[in-house]
Write a structure and sequence with these properties.
Alpha-D-Glucose-1,6-Bisphosphate, Chain A, domain 3; 3 domains; alpha/beta; single chain; five-stranded mixed sheet
């Protein structure tokens, strides 16, 4: 409620679109947000359970001042959080978020309207239908003849995704679409795509795995191979470039993108711009450099010619568009897009995330980089949201990557506890 008061107080009125995923705590937090907004004179439009891409689209459709998505995205059910979106449907930048946090920290007095100036709420009973109509407007090909398997992660896409792809003519098999408030992302979805790959009913189909709020997409090809965000972006980038539709021949990704992705883009003359981890930083760089395509290995993909935030349904539709236009299987596109270097990621719980003070870690990283040369890559970074340090190593073989990653992990444990 305090966050909503702070955001609404700074906005000085207006309207907010509020959506949520399927977590048990969602209705409670939505109610608190609405109360906070109403108390400072801000109206709310309640979109109910809907992908975050739907909240983004509805913000622009209704000319709202903010969007608020109650979701912990890919995290387990006991977690929850709030994503604020700007008037253009994109995530707030760091400065806006810092402003809301500072206003929250100051606390009362808040704006205190009375009578008719108190904010009012309205339920958007057709929110999902409005959102899907917008997504369908980007469909350039019928999906007749395509066989799809959808892993909805028991999350916000559990109704929207089957409805979208079924309405476009695809033969759809749906998995993990029975939310009970506590099973969201549990052994399924974009963080566990191997689960869909192993389902007998998904065999021979193109699979799409969404996360809790459906901003991520990980695909599974017809042969059961996982197609992560790097590969998805590579497929779309190569297709757009071949059609002269990749603005400036630029793509934006984060420091986590695979070495194979980097080499694939370089070989075809696509400039790669790199940011820190986080889709908001990808979006900022895309806008700064005039790029239309960017994203993360984790499955966040932003297509500025179609939206301003990560939207797994839009990404899946674009991937199917490439399949239709190229007249081939997703498995063929995956093989041709890039060669993935083996990558090992070790997450370490630490007492301190201060890598700058850990001289031994820096020395160990330098030694590993010298050992790998041009045939690998090392990244050691602190998590921005958890007490973790992440050690990532890519190498020509999985054995070499694993050996170096765990060697570095030992140094991190010794230095940071």
């Amino acid at each position: 409620m305090g966050l909503a008061r702070a955001a609404g107080d700074l906005a000085g009125g207006g309207t907010v679109v509020v959506g949520r995923d399927t977590r048990r705590s969602g209705p409670m937090l939505v109610a608190a947000l609405q109360a906070g907004f109403h108390s400072v004179g801000v109206d709310t439009l309640d979109a109910g359970v809907i992908p975050v891409g739907g909240v983004s689209a509805l913000v622009t459709e209704f000319g709202a001042d903010l969007g608020a998505m109650v979701s912990a995205s890919h995290n387990p059910a006991p977690d929850n959080g709030i994503k604020f979106l700007d008037a253009d449907g994109s995530k707030l930048d760091d400065e806006r978020e810092a402003g809301i946090e500072a206003r929250l920290a100051r606390g009362a007095p808040w704006r205190s309207p009375t009578g008719a100036r108190v904010g009012a709420g309205r339920a958007l009973t057709d929110a999902t239908e409005r959102y899907l109509a917008g997504v369908r407007s980007h469909a350039s090909h019928s999906l007749e003849g395509l066989r799809l398997a959808l892993d909805c992660a028991h999350g916000a896409a559990h109704r929207a995704a089957p409805e979208l792809f079924g309405s476009l003519g695809a033969d759809v098999a749906t998995f993990f679409a029975d939310p009970d408030g506590m099973n969201i992302n549990h052994g399924c979805g974009a963080t566990s795509p191997e689960r869909l790959a192993s389902e007998s009913g998904a065999e021979g189909r193109i699979g799409f795995c969404f996360d809790g709020d459906a901003d991520r997409l990980i695909a599974v090809d017809e042969d059961g191979h996982i197609v992560n965000g790097d590969v998805i972006i590579a497929i779309i980038a190569l297709h757009l470039k071949s059609r002269g539709e990749l603005a400036g021949n630029k793509v934006v990704t984060t420091v986590m993108s695979n070495l194979g992705f980097r080499r694939s883009m370089r070989e075809v003359g696509i400039e790669l711009l790199e940011t820190q981890v986080g889709d908001r930083y990808v979006l900022a760089a895309m806008r700064e450099h005039g790029a239309v395509l960017g994203g993360e290995q984790s499955g966040h993909v932003i297509q500025l010619d179609r939206g301003t935030t990560g939207d797994g349904l839009l990404t899946a539709l674009r991937l199917l568009e490439v399949v239709a236009r190229e007249g081939c299987r997703l498995a063929d596109l995956r093989r041709d897009a890039m060669t993935q270097y083996p990558q090992v990621l070790v997450n370490l719980a630490v007492r301190s995330r201060d890598l700058d003070s850990a001289r031994g870690v820096g020395e160990a990283v330098a030694a590993a980089e010298a050992e790998l040369g041009d045939n690998g890559r090392v990244l050691v970074r602190a998590s921005g949201t958890e007490p973790l340090v992440r050690v990532m190593v890519e190498a020509a073989t999985a054995e070499n990557a694993d050996s170096i990653a765990h060697r570095l992990a030992g140094v991190v444990r010794q230095e940071l506890g």
